[in-house]
Fold this protein.
Amino acid sequence: MQPTSRQPGPSTRLVHAGERATEYDGAVVLPVFRSAMYDESVSVDDQVVYIRYHNTPNHRAVAAKLAALEGCEDAVVLGSGMAAISSAVLSVVRSGDHVLAQHTLYGGTHALFTQDLPALGVEVEFVESDDPRDWNALRRDTTRLAYVEAISNPLLHVTDLEGIAEWARGAGLVSMIDATMTTPIGLQPTRMGFDLVVHSATKFLNGHSDIVAGAVLGSRELCRGVLHKAQHLGGSLDPDACAQLMRGMKTLALRWERQCATALDLARWLHEHPRVERVLYPGLASHPSHRRAEQWLNGFGALFAFDVGDAATARSLQDGLEYFTAAPSFGGVESLITRPAHTSHALLGTVARAERGIGDGLLRVAVGVEDVEDLRGDLQRALETL
């Protein structure tokens, strides 16, 4: 069969990119290579093949699929999202450097930036503004990294991604973005100008809530630096988990389309419900980030938040749900619901949460692939009992 000249679409890349299965006696699915080490005569990029080096056949296959999906040169897969973030950040900065970061970050990243980096002599400054001019006003001669998230948690804010990427490039900084909540289907940040993209592959990329993994995507040169740092930190991904991630990614485009459509449907319905004080979802015209999301995202995402007023009411609603499990994660096939004030943002304290608009009655929903009618009915029954 003659190869087509057409650039394959994202679903085709998800199924076929990185696949080398038929090299192994015609197997349709890439085997799992459980060997921890390999014959020294076999090398990849002048390195002996070894699990901690992230270069076994399973690691390389997943990395190739990710790079093809993002449309970038290379990728590194690691043992968790935090392994990806810490390896990527530490590959860029050293003692004496300065980092500028978006002020609303995932809790693990925030802890890395406020506890571990300062202990290593790296100063991190958080920027409240979306305006690249305000970022530039805080830049120093020692600034090396600009760090943002594609969509903030739990208020679903989309910052000026294009503007910050362009500013960082002009300022000679490395720009890094956590794009876990948008996936490479919803957004390809390297095409916007970002240098490195990090993902918690635990979430949408795997999609089944049964492994923990991370990934870093970008240029070959920068990924080589990430790989070097990751080898020292030791956050390698088990080959079995590589295989599960490889399998989960094949249905990402299907899951993403379904989950985004369901999230939009539920957000619109809740927006009109009398027991709901507000709904936060970039797909709603009422959301402050709607125009940016409409411009940049392919799908508004599978997460939204809504406020029912106070902690007691929020707990009561959670207790009345059948199909939404109370758990602080997202990206799987099952729908989840969590109270950020009690979970992801509990350590911020009441005053700091209130300043950010994270009230005790705020609930964050991560939509799965269940039938939208069942999820809507479940929420309706729970709201009626309040």
